[in-house]
Design brief:
Belongs to the peroxidase family. Classical plant (class III) peroxidase subfamily. It comes from Brassica carinata (Ethiopian mustard). Its EC number is 1.11.1.7. This protein is an all-alpha fold and 348 residues long. Helix content is 45%, strand content 2%. The chain is built from 15 helices and 2 strands. The longest helix is centred in the first third of the chain and has 16 residues, at 61-76. 47% of the residues are buried.
């Protein structure tokens, strides 16, 4: 069930934080769920309230925030590099092909950071804000709760070239496995469970139309597509028309985090090629997991939570590495860093 914007967010935040702190974590020893327990105890509550408020006008926001976290972690670890704007030192990851005119939710992260800075100055990293926001987004959309290991710090640069190598919606299963393995996610369950993040949210038609009209240069559709679904998608995404039109990843429960995604794959109704590859690749070791997750939501939720924790542990900056950005879009100014070292509150 998706949480209504009218819910009591203070109660929700307390429940989230209390639940998460009671759970065990197998994370990097330097990250721990209670990292902000004393220094910023309201961090979950602040983030939750903002997401709930945003859901009132934007039902896509929870899926968008989860996607931002994926695209951050898969580039150089979960270091908030995706949030940086262009500078004289680097090109923003926002301009990379997988993110340009596609990644969204940056303004919502900005609002979270502003409120958290007021409550807990120079304490919570943008990387942790994005990590928490993704977990709360899943929970508010009907998905599982999990212990969120915290204590990351923010990178001082962005990685445009690496962002261009994010997993593509046109990848084959072998290409997907390779891209996951490169970042350190070697388990088949990681690939299949994290792909389940497409159980909610939208994709632009330009990522779908090749399957509908000229799959692998055959001048025909992807044969794995259900014919009824093919007709529906062609009506929504005509050939050589507006590629920015949005299609639901899950046409059955588009805004809910559930296991319908896997049932869709079994029925030939995966929206993008890389999703359907999990089930339609002959004799793939991903097929049994797709079947299992489609039959048992609890098993999927557990696998997803475990995979999210592993993804969140990819090359975290901790201790004195990186910094705590005061504005998630820019690296701290030299004066801000000096003031931080002096224990003086400062802002950009």
């Amino acid at each position: 069930m998706v949480v209504s914007p009218s819910c009591s967010c203070s109660v929700m935040g307390a429940l989230i934080l209390g639940c998460l702190l009671l759970q065990s974590s197998n994370s990097n020893a330097q990250l721990r769920p209670d990292f902000y327990f004393r220094t910023c105890p309201r961090v979950f509550d602040i983030i939750g309230k903002i997401i709930v408020r945003e859901l009132g006008s934007d039902p896509r926001i929870t899926a968008s925030l989860l996607r931002l976290h994926f695209h951050d972690c898969f580039v150089n670890g979960c270091d908030a590099s995706i949030l940086l704007d262009n500078s004289t030192s680097f090109r923003t990851e926002k301009d990379a092909r997988p993110n340009a005119n596609s990644a969204r939710g940056f303004n919502v992260i900005d609002r979270m950071k502003t409120q958290i800075e007021r409550a807990c100055p120079r304490t919570v990293s943008c990387a942790d804000i994005l990590t928490i926001a993704s977990q709360v987004s899943v929970l508010l959309s009907g998905g599982p709760s999990w212990s969120v290991p915290l204590g990351r710090r923010d990178n001082l640069q962005a990685f445009f070239d690496r962002a261009n190598k994010l997993p593509s919606p046109f990848f084959t299963l072998d290409e997907l496995k390779q891209s996951f393995s490169i970042v350190g996610l070697n388990r088949t369950s990681d690939l299949v469970a994290l792909s389940g993040g497409h159980t909610f949210g939208r994709a632009q038609c330009k990522f779908v139309t090749p399957r509908l009209y000229n799959f692998n240069n055959t001048n025909g559709p992807d044969p794995s597509l259900d014919t009824t679904y093919l007709a529906q998608l062609r009506a929504l995404c005509p050939e050589n028309r507006d590629g920015t039109v949005l299609a639901n990843f899950d046409p059955v429960t588009p805004n809910s985090f559930d296991n319908q995604y896997y049932t869709n794959l079994r029925n030939g109704r995966g929206l993008i090629q890389s999703d359907q590859e999990l089930f339609s690749t002959p004799q793939a070791d991903t097929i049994p997991l797709v079947k299992q997750y489609s039959r048992n939501r609890s098993v999927f939720f557990k696998a997803f939570a475990e995979a999210m924790i592993r993804m969140g542990d990819l090359k975290p900056l901790t201790g004195n590495q990186g910094e705590i950005r005061l504005n998630c879009r820019v690296v701290n100014s030299r004066r801000s860093v000096e003031n931080e070292n002096d224990g003086v509150v400062s802002s950009i």
